[in-house]
């Protein structure tokens, strides 16, 4: 008898079959973490342009452009993340396509400046469409071995392809009103694709892997915000005689960033990934959390410019550019992950303090209330740990 030798995969490619959603020890891969770092470049550039535009006094233009640009960044990241949790093979083709997608991120990042300066979306759309074309190829490859999820993968590929054609067509619209309406319609079309596809049969997402991926991206964005904020303050220190306001702003940056980290990682996020509705709420809701984290550093820059007299924005509004992103971040985490895992005290303190942060501009001491209320939230989270899976507190669990 001749010995049987395993047949090498054709072209050294692994079959792209659905991953086991209950797989033990599933963690973010080094490729996924590398992928996140490239996306943070785009987040940093968007935040920097938001800061510059607001400092010039164009608050409305800056916020609108930032939210649209950030949608493209976040949506491309999220689509890859949820695809990877279901079909990651980590073979050479998967890696190459992912790296090409990173190239699309860099093209998109290069197009952010023209959007803020001249409302020229051509380069940004080119990078975005390139990323989405790569996702189409990944979904089509997955369709060959998806089994019961085959129709879902085809709907994803077709839906993404149709919307990309519409994005390219949108570039030809000259009328500003129709252009603005078109952006809204196309964003709705993008977010509708997963809803339509997953109702035909859900892909096998891994709760622990997904929430780890979101956690990793949150840490990276918070780190970028802290770095950008620190650089802004360090540069401003040499330009003023009274450094007390800048020192207080620096204390705010460290305290608030640490508090945002503490708040985000307090609840067991994986419990939110279950039903299709819950998973969509968790995935889509993170747009506000990520956008707020990225905007926080822009707000710190605006506040520093205001203290230097280098901002065209009213001083009260400048303080709001810090407090509003913080409030949105905290409320977003509370709605998506904290509320279902906390007792009545925490569910009162967290949203109340998040809203009270918005009172910061009304007192003469900049950033004091924001720092104070964020510390109060953290204290509440330390005193009252998350409820267990049966909705019981730690004390109740011991009694039982």
Automatic annotation (TrEMBL):
Residues 1-24 are annotated as: Disordered. The chain crosses the membrane at residues 33-51, 63-85, 92-115, 121-140, 152-171, 177-197, 217-237, 243-264, 284-304, 316-337, 369-387. Keywords: Membrane, Transmembrane, Transmembrane helix. It holds the Pfam family LtrA. InterPro entries: Low_temperature_requirement_A (IPR010640). It comes from the Bacteria. This is Low temperature requirement A.
């Amino acid at each position: 008898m001749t010995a049987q030798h395993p047949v090498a995969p054709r072209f050294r490619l692994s079959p792209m079959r659905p991953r086991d959603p209950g797989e033990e020890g599933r963690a973010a891969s080094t490729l996924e973490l590398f992928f996140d770092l490239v996306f943070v470049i785009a987040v940093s550039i968007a935040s920097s342009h938001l800061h510059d535009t607001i400092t010039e006094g164009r608050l409305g233009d800056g916020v609108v452009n930032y939210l649209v640009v950030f949608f493209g960044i976040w949506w491309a990241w999220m689509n890859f993340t949820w695809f990877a949790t279901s079909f990651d093979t980590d073979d050479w083709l998967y890696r190459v396509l992912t790296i090409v997608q990173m190239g699309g991120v860099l093209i998109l990042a290069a197009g952010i400046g023209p959007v803020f300066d001249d409302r020229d979306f051509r380069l940004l759309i080119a990078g975005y469409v390139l990323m989405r074309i790569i996702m189409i190829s990944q979904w089509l490859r997955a369709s060959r071995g998806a089994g019961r999820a085959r129709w879902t993968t085809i709907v994803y590929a077709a839906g993404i392809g149709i919307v990309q054609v519409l994005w390219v067509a949108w570039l030809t619209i000259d009328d500003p009103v129709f252009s603005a309406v078109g952006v809204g319609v196309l964003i709705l079309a993008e977010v509708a694709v997963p809803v339509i596809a997953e109702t035909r049969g859900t892909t096998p997402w891994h709760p622990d892997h997904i929430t780890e991926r979101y956690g990793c991206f949150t840490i990276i964005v918070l780190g970028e915000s802290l770095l950008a904020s620190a650089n802004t303050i360090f540069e401003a220190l040499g330009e003023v005689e009274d450094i007390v306001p800048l020192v207080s702003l620096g204390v705010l940056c460290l305290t608030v960033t640490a508090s945002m980290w503490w708040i985000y990682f307090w609840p067991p996020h994986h419990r939110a990934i279950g039903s299709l509705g819950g998973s969509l709420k968790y995935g889509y809701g993170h747009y506000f959390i990520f956008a707020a984290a990225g905007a926080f550093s822009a707000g710190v820059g605006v506040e520093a410019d205001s203290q230097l007299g280098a901002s065209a924005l009213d001083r009260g509004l400048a303080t709001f550019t810090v407090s509003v992103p913080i409030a949105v971040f905290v409320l977003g985490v509370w709605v998506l992950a904290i509320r279902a895992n906390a007792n009545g005290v925490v569910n009162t303190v967290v949203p109340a303090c998040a809203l009270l942060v918005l009172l910061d501009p009304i007192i003469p001491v900049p950033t004091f209330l924001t720092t104070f209320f964020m510390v109060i939230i953290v204290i509440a989270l330390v005193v009252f740990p998350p409820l267990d899976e049966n909705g019981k507190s730690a004390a109740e669990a011991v009694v039982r």
